[in-house]
Amino acid sequence: MQFLLHLPVPVSIIIVLAVSIGLSVLGLRFVRKRYPQEVLKENHEVAGFVYNAFMLIYAVLVAFVVYVTWTNYDETKKNAEMEANLIVDVFSDAQGLPDTMQMEARNAFSEYIHLIVDEEWSEMEHGAFSPNAKDEFRKIWNIYFNTDVSKITNQEAYKESLSRLNKLGEYRRMRIIASRSHMPGLIWLVLIVCAVTSVGYTYFFGTKNLRAQYVMTSVLALINGLILYLIFVLDHPFNGNTKITSAIFVEVQKLIEQVM
């Protein structure tokens, strides 16, 4: 299913809808050939009551999953933006450091942001990270830890830099963890079973106008397909054409290059 993320969104949606509607129509055609409308009509009273209860439960489940996946997607995007902003902040704070340390720190930050944009962002599609970026971030820490604190005249700037470096490391870890975290397979199983059941249950209803039933069943399958596709996209924030891009880090890279 990963290939859907790398196709243009309209093409992915067309494929999802074609499969969903195609299977639902085939299933309905099979049932209506075996059971005439008069036989199915006998199920309307009881089946209608059970179907309403099932759809209520299903709607709550879908709403909850969409909310959680969208919240995680949005939070992941905000964390990446916070990480980029912190890089700018610590880079700017380096002005208060001794000249030698300032130059080392700024060069390290310049290389670090370069590695994030050119290496690590593509690695996160596979839930991985760039070892070079990790080493460069460790190098930044070493610059701050191995310096002679007594020679730093602006102690406040140094302390603030350490505090922001800690937060930067935290946001970096959160970004990498988010690239590896996905919705459990059990939830996907429940969603797919419920989606199939919601469509399949309509086969127990028989209408005189068969064409109308085909249309109603297709619309339900269409909605289910779109919802599952939406959840799938939101569950992969760093994959495909709808992924969170490195645009904010590119802007930071340009800003740093201008200062350098």
The figure for the number of domains is 1
Structural class determined from secondary elements: mainly alpha
Extended strand count: 0
Number of helices: 10
| Helix/strand order, N-terminal first | HHHHHHHHHH
Largest sheet: none
Average pLDDT number: 87
Instruction: Tell the overall outline.
Output: elongated
Give the C-alpha Rg.
27 Å
Low-confidence stretches: none
Distance between the termini: 44 Å
Provide the β-strand percentage band: under 5%
Descriptive account of the structure:
The chain is mostly helical and 260 residues long. It has one domain. It has 10 helices and no strands. The longest helix has 50 residues. The protein starts with a helix and ends with a helix.
Which keywords apply here?
single chain; 260 residues; mainly alpha; 79% helix; elongated
How is the topology of this model organized?
Blueprint: H1 3-6, H2 9-34, H3 37-41, H4 44-93, H5 99-123, H6 131-145, H7 155-180, H8 185-200, H9 210-234, H10 247-259
Task: Summarize it.
The chain is mostly helical. The chain has helices at residues 3-6, 9-34, 37-41, 44-93, 99-123, 131-145, 155-180, 185-200, 210-234, 247-259. Helix content is 79%, strand content 0%.
